[in-house]
């Protein structure tokens, strides 16, 4: 079935979003109007389609749904689940069981989420046609953007896009991140020419799994076509900042290549070399310009200095990425930041209909054709009657909900873990502010470390202190993002026997124990963290700052002075409030960094 067929006959005003830039855009805007105007009817139809096709699956048969395809029966009989609940089914599929366990359509691959379970990326089953659904959502983004920024067909987009390594499950299915899957698909590789979607990066550079070669080529091509660039972007803010850091570190080599018209020998990938060769000719004037701009040591506004025609940054700065807004403002001289879409490995959810709004105002409109959506009022556990979940069209403005999805690929009433607040409606479709992801304590880029993982890492590292009769009495953490790449800072207060305190500290320093503790913590963190450290270099070495004895008591005093209850006080395991960070830093007696990279391999651990 074509994914665009779910269009109920409604009479809507296609120009409500604004006059479309062209006929193709008008058709896409009409589609948005139709979907949002009949959100509830579309949702009913989507569920009916999913249940009709998947009614024979082992999973749905288990709940005795029979041939019912209506919402009431579905909600009454099928439980709300988490990834851990589905683990046995997912493991069987990964091990090669091709029977219709979750989905009637064959599982084409697994998408590896940045959310982890037992330290490994979650495996999300997907089916071929989901690519069409994702493509459909992508195709809506430029028609909306064209309403606000005219002339984007007159130039190009400098987008830093990357693939990551992929692996095979024991049963032979590919497992890779959703964007890697998309960039490697024919949808992306063989996309028809579209003047509104011309990138400066050659596809060969995007598809190279070597992070250095890919980034080098993308930056070089961006510099060569600098006057054509109308928008600069990456998927997440952290990715764009990594690109700027790359320019800071490599501008001399890049200028050298431009001056001579020769690509550095460090880029060995033959398809990148031939793609770059088509663009790279000796251009001493451009090389001089880049050298002049980058050698000043002043990086403020570097994006608009090098790419002066940039109209906006296309980068997600909502959720965990909001911490990068000030840095991006600094480097871009205050360009608008467009957060265009909200998506995940499980399902692409929706788009921002006002992409040029301030980051603090961003709301995403969930497209009702993507999956069947339910909303668990935040703070509620789904009870046995499973009735608290609200349908897309019935959510209330101002309330917070956890997103629960039922997908064509076979997730049924699956808790995504995102908390969303309803900010309003577009037609009959609600719009949501991304509030936060549940249980995430620390995040630098796509890594998500929760409290239990941090606790486990501290425990594992502090074992190294035992031979020195020292231990960790208290700890907290902070995602340090003032430098790029950012890194985790863990504050430790140590307990050392008073009588031998001086000697113990000297022995710890002599033996480099604190540094080893940093590495031991990294080894204990989940695979997404370690991949970012090792393969992408997008997280810097973990740092332990040792604070003097009594610091955490002072922290408690401070919290109580600000109104915390003495009985209920708990040490915060992550801090970002500047006065608290100042307090901790002013009590720091030493700082230690991880001396090496933790272990990471693209293959999943089997335990
Ligand atoms: P993954 O499964 O690794 O693709 O990560 C998907 C998760 O990233 C979502 O469930 C959200 O928590 C987060 N995410 C995706 N898009 C956005 C966005 N536009 N704003 C904030 N968080 C987002």
Describe the overall structure:
- The chain contains 21 helices and 20 strands.
- It is of the alpha+beta class and 607 residues long.
- Strand 4 and strand 5 (174-176) form a beta hairpin.
- Bound molecules: adenosine monophosphate.
- The site of adenosine monophosphate has 17 residues, from strand 1, strand 9, strand 15 and strand 16.
- Belongs to the IAA-amido conjugating enzyme family.
- This is Indole-3-acetic acid-amido synthetase GH3.8.
- Residues 364-437 form the GH3 middle domain.
Offer a quick outline of the entry.
This protein is α+β, with helices and mostly antiparallel strands and 607 residues long.
Distinct ligands: adenosine monophosphate
Based on CA atoms alone, the radius of gyration comes out at 26 Å
Largest sheet: 8 strands, antiparallel
Unreliable segments of 5+ consecutive residues: 1-5, 7-14
Count the DSSP helices. Answer: 21
The separation of the N and C termini measures 39 Å
Keywords: Ligase
Family: Belongs to the IAA-amido conjugating enzyme family.
Organism: Canna indica
Domain GH3 C-terminal: 453-577
